[in-house]
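Summary for the steering committee. One of the milestones for this cycle was to obtain a three-dimensional model of the protein with NAP bound, which we needed before selecting residues for the alanine scan. The sequence and ligand used are listed below.
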Amino acid sequence: MPITGKTKLLGVIGDPVEHSLSPAMHNAAIAHLGLDYVYLPFPIQKENLARALDGFAAIALVGFNITIPHKQAIIPLLAEVSPVAQAIGAVNTVWRSEKGWEGTNTDAIGFIAPLRELECNWRKITPVILGNGGAARAVVAGCVELGCSEIRVVGRDRGKLDKFKLSWQDTPFAGAVRVHLWDELPTLVSETQLLVNSTPVGMSPHVDRSPLDEATLKQLPVGAIAYDLIYTPSPTRFLQLAKKCGAMAIDGSEMLVQQGAAALGLWLQQPIPAQIMRQALLENLQSRIEGKKEIGEEKVIGEERNEQNSVSR
Ligand code: NAP
């Protein structure tokens, strides 16, 4: 569809934002639906965030995604924040309403989308999450949404773990969160049917690394799921080892697609062709890998680190 004065605007803000895969995914879905919208990347520096929001209101931008470094900073600038985004402590999707800009977080929806396809009694499963950073928060919210009543979050720093646990106080998720130190993992792994890597360990270019070794992964019960939020490379070393130990492997690409599809659904208020977004994502990732092969390994390393770190939206 040609861009005209009537074309409605969507986008993603971040700094950096040039590596974002979201424009490819969203514009593919918009084109497939034949809608007069366009989704643009907007590089916005920290100090310009409030002004950017005013500017977006002035040009009647319909909605936008948010990536690093604005996901927390935007919260006080919004007229309303959904309970799940408040609990996670980060907003990744914003839209305009009569009240002003409203925000939510679709990462938890994205995380659970591939799990919902499986036949599991989630109430009986106690997930183990490696890492206690931003993504782990969405994983906790997703696991509660699935029905899990206890979620074990594993970190390497007691102080950060205590802070993590405390941060859920006064949210509906508080009762479910338990925190554990890394050295408890052999026991924790042997008791879980869902093991999630929400650390960046194994992300390109350190593709030979895994947060857990084979001996620990061998403790996984039969039929367990190993889920890595990383999507470059795919599969990661963690998923390769887990598969070797008999687990089912899920990478982070579907989470990325589904958080985007959920955001687009909020803006367009109609069913979203996730398959088209998935195809656009995979093609884009593939062409980046091929492009990098041509320009040499050195550039690949710097760019891929940037990509998965800034990509999420
Ligand atoms: P983050 O906020 O920086 O948190 C990273 C966590 O990993 C921290 O708890 C950190 O522990 C821990 N960690 C880092 N290196 C470690 C190591 N060597 N051993 C043990 N723990 C380690 O990052 P994030 O935003 O949560 O992202 C985590 C991963 O998820 C990244 O790979 C990111 O790309 C991916 N992600 C994917 C999606 C998706 O849509 N698929 C969405 C969001 C994020 P300390 O606090 O002790 O340093």
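Key point for the committee: Residues 107, 110, 131-136, 155-157, 160, 198-201, 203, 211, 229-231, 252, 255-256, 259, 308, 312 surround NAP (CB under 6 Å).
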